[in-house]
Amino acid sequence: MSLKTIIRLQKLQLDEKRRVLAELHTLADRLRNEIEKVKQEIVHEQETVRDDFSVSFTYSNFAQAAMERGRKLGESLGQVEAQIEIATDEMAEAFQELKRYELAEEERQKRERDKQKRKDAAMLDETALVGFRRRQAEEEAAGG
């Protein structure tokens, strides 16, 4: 398998890891928003209870359910954040591997260019030497 093919494959893998990481960040943001919503609902219900005492009998059940929901959302957020750390590390590793292959390809191309330059220089040297010998032979024939 050529380095160019490996580089293409590594780029695809890196793009996939970036996509997964972006999805995890989006999920974490949604969970944070949900947690904030639950907090706002609790505050709103507390204000309602302050304003209307008759509602206070149902507040306890609401508060318990809301706090449980908030706890579960917090656990989910913790799990997603752990996955984000892992995905970030995996993406960094994939990026480093891609860079290694790209550097290897650049080095290979540089060696090819240097080899071609040496070939070209040798050909020019040979051409110059042939021309020099021909002129020398012409001078000897003309002078001799």
From TrEMBL:
Pfam families: FliJ. GO terms for cellular component: bacterial-type flagellum. InterPro entries: Flagell_FliJ. Residues 105-124 are annotated as: Disordered. Residues 14-48, 77-104 form a coiled coil. One of its GO terms (biological process) is bacterial-type flagellum-dependent cell motility. Transmembrane segments: none annotated. Residues 105-122 have a biased composition (Basic and acidic residues). Keywords: Coiled coil. This is Uncharacterized protein. The lineage of its organism: Bacteria, Pseudomonadati, Pseudomonadota, Alphaproteobacteria, Rhodospirillales.
